[in-house]
Amino acid sequence: MKRTARLELACSLACLSTLTASLIPGVTRGAAAQSFPSDDPVIRAIWEEGVERSQVYQLGQVMMDSIGPRLTGSPAMAGANDWALAKYAEWGIEAYKEQYGTWRGWERGISHIDLIQPRMRSLEGMAAAWSPATDGPVEAEVVILPDADSPGAFEAALSEVRGKFVLVSRPEPSCRPRDNLEWFARPETTARMAAERERAIAEWSERVGNTGFDARSLPEALNAGGPAGIIRSQWSDGWGVTKIFGTRAQRAPVLDLSCEAYGLLYRLAENDQGPVLRVDAQARFLGEVPVFNAFAVIPGSAEPEEYVILGGHYDSWDGSDGALDNGTGAVAIMEAMRILKHAVPNPRRTIIGALWNGEEQGLNGSRAFVEDHPEILERTHTVFNVDHGNGPVTFIPMQGFAGAAGRFGEWLAKIPSELSDLVTLEVPGMPESGGTDHASFLCAGVPAFSFHVGAGRSEMNIADNRWDTSTYTWHTNRDSFDKIVFEDLRDDAVMTAMFAYLASEDPDRMPRDRRTMPPGTQWPDCRPPARTSGQSTR
User: Fold this and answer.
1) pTM for this prediction
2) Which of 88, 139, 294, 466 could bridge to 95 as Cys pair (CB 3.0-4.6 Å)?
């Protein structure tokens, strides 16, 4: 059984009402409500700078609204790095970017997808990341993926898709979220629709399996038939949300449609009602371009060759603005470094703020850093990773490091109770092998910890307890600026800065002793980064 160390609440959650003053630029709130458990003037200075002069709103607005999504290899990602370095320079912080490889460069243009037969309607959807463009507007019939009973029969049926848009995803019987059905519908209706969905999943899985390809390789296989385009949909189980990913298709454009728009096309095609689309999908391929991580550095004064690393990935998918995944994490890192420069200009250890690239393609930026800098890893005290989306930090797993909980307990005891009282530590936890960038360090034995929101694993699956993030924002077309709760983002940046300061001043480095692993498990192995798009299996 897991042992969980929970800090006892010193005040009720009602205390947090004191933290909800306006974040509108130029408007501040009083600082009288915080509870400082120690007389450390630096903790007070971090609080004052991070609360009274917070920059998270301004940083987030530029990052998400003006720069927008930060797809690896895109001009927007390159521009985002340059903007971050300029902000650091404005704050008097040393900063640089470091190339870790190359990636396929691509710039999104407009996507217009219109149904023109049997009636006129503009459809909600866009080209997938790295999709080929259309050669101007293209009009073509819509057909369903051929229903072949073997790979050979599928190959023979490819002539049926020539010059047509091909539907390659299963249709959803309903785009109404299941929890909505469970709340309002008759039990027999809920049961019937659940059975329909299970049947549709099984039937479509068999259809795709009979092609001899999987969902990832199917678009490229269909290209041999010369389609006008490939249409898919990955509903996110919520109102109006669709997952938008990328494609490796080289010829025909690949389009991601909303659940509702895709279902409309599928029903029209299935019932021989002659759906015809006009599609204008614009994009620019830029060849293999250099890709970078961006770093800010506050040099240590006493132990400059020992390190505390704050990290969060900067790249995103580009179906929306990449706000909660992981614009909030990137803002928290930048704001924490700004606060630290003001409040802790001469820390004992060197503090590095890392904005990783290529996380969405397999943690490539952070894995490359781990591979390229063994001299830093050997002398790293601890790594803090911010990639939780939205909400106050409530849960920090100890990742299998036997002595970590004691150190975190010491730090939390020095942090204002409005923040620390919310936190549960999982002790000793298990080392995670992936998911986000702290895993790149864990496999090398470096103490690395990721901050989470939600009640924690002992009460609810952590993936299901993030403000509905997994449904409504994670990799979806709705991951936009308006989803950010700025009071929480401000406090996350303040807590991150406090952890970094306290770690930088520790007399001893974080112990690296590992827990005894349960039978049948082992500490995760490090995986090499994909340093070019050609090396990627994603």
Assistant:
1) 0.92
2) 88
